[in-house]
């Protein structure tokens, strides 16, 4: 039984970000322009910082694809960090050229700095920042784009949008909220929604806790940097009665339909044929131009948190990353249910 899985590597200011994808069947058409468009979507959004002016993310396919189609072997993707040119001495692997340039020892509240320094026994917090940075989500979006190309073969499509930023609920209010935060040296989070349409019934399972589709989706989205809560379907379920919440079942022209979708397309850990609707809340970015109180990890003296170049708001980018993460979960589930060694075999299983 084949499985869609991937590993990524790379640091925020390192030479490149890489991914190896395993489990893709042979003969899947890979549209590199589509992958690059998805990467561009991640870089857009009001409130992004200076890094987006340096990077123009494009992917290079290093293995597993020939003449535009997968071979059935692992696919390797690479995104080069343009900013590495300015960080070569800082990020070099050679121990003969150690430098303290760009090292820092003051924790940033809300980041991985404190817990990471304890876990990995590091005093230079650069060693924690570089991999914990949300920069790594660029290669994850590229992987998600490949997953979306796979899903498209089965008629499954996905989208995402921003529902709220700060107290704003319209595009104009989003910008006003972001401008206000930027002027105050502060940051903003928000709420996003991811929707996938035209899914078959029966992805996921109820037989074990770790096979439920909603559980897998929640874990995938919850692990997006800065996401603090994830819900499937109507997130006001806690204040609804059963008769208000549950989606009644009807039959029209021999087809089972629902007139509501409060369950968000998942019942009993399985897709029920309705749109899968995922909502997530992103916290404000913890790197502030007006720094919070913190400690030096070496001296434990009270000081101000370290400031590293950052965004004021990255909620739109978060939506694109979450969309990519859900695509990877769904691609894996499609392979588990309808898998084969080539696309022709997968589609035959699906159509039967």
From TrEMBL:
Reduced FMN (FMNH(2)). Gene3D superfamilies: Chorismate synthase AroC (3.60.150.10). InterPro entries: Chorismate_synth (IPR000453), Chorismate_synth_AroC_sf (IPR035904), Chorismate_synthase_CS (IPR020541). Pathway: Metabolic intermediate biosynthesis; chorismate biosynthesis; chorismate from D-erythrose 4-phosphate and phosphoenolpyruvate: step 7/7. It is an enzyme of class 4 (lyase). FMN binds at residues 131-133, 268, 283-287, 309. Its EC number is 4.2.3.5. It comes from the Bacteria. One of its GO terms (biological process) is chorismate biosynthetic process. One of its GO terms (molecular function) is FMN binding. The gene is aroC. It comes from Candidatus Scatousia excrementigallinarum. PROSITE patterns: CHORISMATE_SYNTHASE_1 (PS00787), CHORISMATE_SYNTHASE_2 (PS00788). Pfam families: Chorismate_synt (PF01264). This is Chorismate synthase. Belongs to the chorismate synthase family. PANTHER family: CHORISMATE SYNTHASE. GO terms for cellular component: cytosol. Its cofactor is FMNH2. Keywords: Amino-acid biosynthesis, Aromatic amino acid biosynthesis, FAD, Flavoprotein, FMN, Lyase, NADP. This reaction introduces a second double bond into the aromatic ring system. It catalyses: 5-O-(1-carboxyvinyl)-3-phosphoshikimate = chorismate + phosphate.
């Amino acid at each position: 039984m084949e499985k869609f899985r991937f590993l990524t590597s790379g640091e925020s200011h390192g030479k490149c970000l890489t991914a190896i994808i395993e489990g893709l069947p042979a003969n899947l058409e890979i549209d590199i322009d589509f992958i690059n468009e998805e990467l561009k979507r991640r870089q857009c959004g009001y409130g992004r910082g200076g890094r987006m002016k340096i990077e123009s993310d494009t992917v290079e396919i290093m293995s597993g694809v020939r003449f535009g189609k997968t071979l059935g072997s692992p696919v390797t993707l690479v995104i080069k960090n343009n900013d590495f040119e300015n960080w070569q001495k800082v990020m070099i692997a050679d121990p003969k050229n150690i430098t303290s340039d760009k090292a820092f020892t003051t924790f940033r509240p809300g980041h991985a700095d404190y817990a990471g320094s304890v876990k990995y026994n590091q005093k230079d917090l650069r060693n924690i920042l570089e991999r914990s940075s949300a920069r790594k989500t660029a290669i994850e979006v590229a992987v998600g784009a490949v997953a979306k190309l796979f899903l498209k073969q089965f008629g499954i499509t996905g989208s995402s949008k921003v529902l709220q930023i700060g107290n704003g609920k319209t595009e104009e209010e989003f910008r006003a909220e972001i401008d206000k935060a930027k002027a105050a040296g502060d940051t903003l989070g928000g709420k996003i929604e991811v929707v996938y349409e035209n899914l078959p019934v029966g992805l996921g399972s109820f037989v074990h806790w770790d096979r439920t589709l909603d559980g897998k989706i929640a874990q995938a989205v919850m692990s997006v940097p800065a996401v603090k809560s994830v819900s499937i379907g109507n997130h006001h379920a806690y204040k609804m009665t059963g008769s208000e919440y549950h989606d009644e079942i009807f039959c029209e022209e021999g087809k089972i339909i629902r007139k509501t979708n409060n369950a968000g397309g998942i019942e009993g850990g399985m897709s029920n044929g309705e749109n899968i609707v995922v909502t997530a809340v992103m916290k404000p970015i913890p790197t502030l131009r007006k720094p919070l109180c913190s400690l030096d990890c070496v001296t434990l003296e009270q000081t101000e948190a370290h400031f590293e170049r950052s965004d004021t708001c990255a909620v739109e980018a978060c939506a694109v990353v979450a969309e990519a993460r859900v695509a990877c979960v769904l691609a894996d589930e499609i392979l588990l249910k309808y898998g084969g060694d080539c696309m022709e075999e997968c589609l035959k299983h699906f159509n039967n």
